[in-house]
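About this split. The held-out portion is used to measure sequence recovery: a designer receives only the C-alpha cells and must propose an amino acid at every position. Recovery is the fraction of positions where the proposal matches the reference. Here is one held-out target exactly as it appears in the evaluation file.
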C-alpha cells in the first residue's frame, strides 16, 4: 500500500510541495493517511475539527488526535464549531454545515501557516458513495466524475485504496484509531447508502464497486471531451469588451443544447443552475430583464446577454466649475476655450463636443439621465425625450445606465460621447468655442 501511496504522490504532487496540512478526524482512514505521510519525509501538520455534536465522544476524538500529533512530533491545530447553530442560521443540513465550516477553516489555516496543500483521507469507497449521492440529488456530467486526487489546494492521496485495504493496513501496523458511532446511524444520507443501498447493488453485482469506479473513469473521459467542445463554443459565443461580456443569442440558440451551454457559460460568473434556467426562459422575452449573481449582473438585451461586474452605486451629480481644464471623476474629460477662427474645423468625433462658449454658464453638471429628460438633438429644432432618443439609437439598458449627461441647470448640453443639444451648437455668430473631449475608457462603450 505504501508503494501505491508513493506513486500517487509522485504522480500528482507539484514539485514545489514542501508542507502539507493533514485533516485528521481520528478515524481509520485519516490515521492510516497520517502513518503513510510520516514515512515520506514531507513536513506535515495535523488539523482536527470538533463539531460539538457528540459531546464526550468528540472530546475523546480530539484528545486522541492531539496525542497522535504529539507522538509524531508535528504541529496540532484544533477548532470547535457551533455546527447546529450555523446550520440553522444558514438553512443547511448538519452535514453540509459541517462541510462548509471544515473547508473554510482548513483554507484559512493553510494560508496562515504556509502549508502548500490540505490532505484529505477520502478513499475509493467514498468515491462510489459520492457518485450515488450526486445521482440521487440530481447532477450533471461533472457530478458523475467523482472526487479528484488533486483539486486546487485539496489533495486526496487515498483514492486508490478501498475501505477493506485501509482496515487491513491499520491492523497490519497495529494502528489505533477511533470509531465514530454516528457512522452507523442511517439518518445521514451517506450512511444509508453505505449500509443499505450499496450492499443491495453488491448482491446483484459482486463487482459493484469496481464497476462504478470504471464508470467514473469513463464519465471523466467523457467530461474531458465535453469540456473541449465547450471551449470551442465559448470562444465563438462569449465576447469580451472591456469589463463586460456579451453572449450572442442567435449563436447560442444554434448550439445542439443551448440550455446546457448557457448553464456552463454562466457558471464562471457565479450564476446558479436555477438562475441559468431563469435566464434561458427569459431569452424570448422583451429586453431589459436583469439577473444578479454574487459577482455579476446579467441584462437581457435584444440580441445579446450582457454581463458586467456588480459595482457600488455611483455618486449622482458632479459639478464642473469655471476654469476647470480636466475632470477625472466619474469619467475623464478635458475642457478648453478657443477663439473662433476661419481655420477652425469642428471635429466629427462623437467624443468631442464643440459648443458656443458665450451660451454657457458655469457650473456645469455631470449626471446620469433621469426620466422626463429631453433635449434638442443637434440638427433638429424639435425637442425629443431622451428615452425616445435612446430607443432610436438602440441603447441597451446597460448603455443607458453608463451614459453621462452634461447639463447647465436643467438644460442638456451634451449626451456625452454621442450628441450635443442643438441650442448650444456653433453658428456663424459664435465668437468663442468651448471644446470638451471625453477620453473614452473600457467602462464606457456603447454598442450599436
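Reference sequence for scoring:
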Amino acid at each position: 500500500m505504501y508503494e501505491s501511496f508513493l506513486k500517487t504522490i509522485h504522480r500528482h504532487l507539484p514539485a514545489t510541495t514542501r508542507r502539507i496540512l493533514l485533516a485528521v478526524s481520528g478515524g481509520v482512514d485519516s490515521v492510516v493517511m497520517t502513518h503513510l505521510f510520516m514515512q515520506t519525509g514531507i513536513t506535515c501538520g495535523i488539523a482536527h475539527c470538533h463539531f460539538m455534536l457528540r459531546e464526550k465522544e468528540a472530546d475523546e476524538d480530539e484528545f486522541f488526535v492531539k496525542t497522535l500529533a504529539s507522538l509524531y512530533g508535528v504541529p496540532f491545530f484544533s477548532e470547535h464549531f457551533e455546527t447546529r447553530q450555523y446550520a440553522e442560521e444558514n438553512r443547511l443540513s448538519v452535514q453540509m454545515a459541517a462541510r462548509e465550516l471544515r473547508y473554510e477553516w482548513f483554507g484559512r489555516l493553510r494560508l496562515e501557516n504556509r502549508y502548500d496543500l490540505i490532505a484529505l483521507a477520502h478513499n475509493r469507497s467514498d468515491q462510489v458513495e459520492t457518485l450515488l449521492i450526486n445521482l440521487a440529488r440530481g447532477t450533471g456530467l461533472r457530478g458523475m466524475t467523482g472526487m479528484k486526487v488533486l483539486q486546487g489546494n485539496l489533495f486526496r492521496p487515498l483514492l486508490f485504496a478501498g475501505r477493506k485495504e485501509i482496515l487491513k493496513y491499520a491492523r497490519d501496523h497495529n494502528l489505533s484509531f477511533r470509531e465514530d458511532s454516528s457512522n452507523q446511524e442511517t439518518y445521514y444520507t451517506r450512511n444509508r447508502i453505505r449500509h443499505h443501498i450499496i450492499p443491495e447493488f453488491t448482491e446483484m453485482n459482486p463487482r459493484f464497486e469496481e464497476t462504478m469506479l470504471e464508470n467514473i473513469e469513463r464519465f471523466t473521459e467523457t467530461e474531458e471531451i465535453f469540456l473541449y467542445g465547450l471551449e470551442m463554443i465559448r470562444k465563438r459565443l462569449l465576447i469580451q469588451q472591456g469589463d463586460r461580456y456579451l453572449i450572442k443569442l442567435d449563436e447560442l440558440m444554434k448550439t445542439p443544447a443551448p440550455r446546457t451551454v448557457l448553464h456552463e457559460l454562466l457558471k464562471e460568473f457565479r450564476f446558479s443552475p436555477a438562475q441559468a434556467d431563469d435566464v434561458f426562459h427569459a431569452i424570448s422575452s422583451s429586453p431589459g430583464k436583469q439577473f444578479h449573481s454574487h459577482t455579476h449582473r446579467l441584462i437581457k438585451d435584444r440580441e445579446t446577454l450582457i454581463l458586467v461586474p456588480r459595482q457600488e452605486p455611483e455618486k449622482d451629480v458632479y459639478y464642473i466649475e469655471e476654469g476647470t481644464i480636466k475632470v477625472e471623476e466619474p469619467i475623464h474629460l478635458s475642457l478648453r476655450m478657443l477663439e473662433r477662427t476661419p481655420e477652425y474645423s469642428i471635429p466629427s468625433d462623437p467624443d468631442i463636443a464643440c459648443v458656443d462658449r458665450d451660451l454657457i454658464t458655469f457650473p456645469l453638471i455631470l449626471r446620469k439621465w433621469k426620466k422626463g429628460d429631453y433635449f434638442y438633438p443637434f440638427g433638429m429644432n424639435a425637442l425629443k425625450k431622451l428615452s425616445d432618443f435612446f430607443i432610436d439609437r438602440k441603447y441597451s439598458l446597460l448603455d443607458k445606465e453608463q451614459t453621462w449627461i452634461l447639463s447647465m441647470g436643467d438644460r442638456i448640453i451634451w449626451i456625452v460621447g454621442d450628441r450635443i443639444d442643438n441650442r448650444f451648437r456653433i453658428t456663424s455668430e459664435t465668437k468663442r468655442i468651448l471644446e470638451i473631449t471625453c477620453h473614452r475608457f473600457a467602462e464606457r462603450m456603447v454598442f450599436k
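Annotator remark: The chain has three domains: 2-216, 242-309, 317-438.
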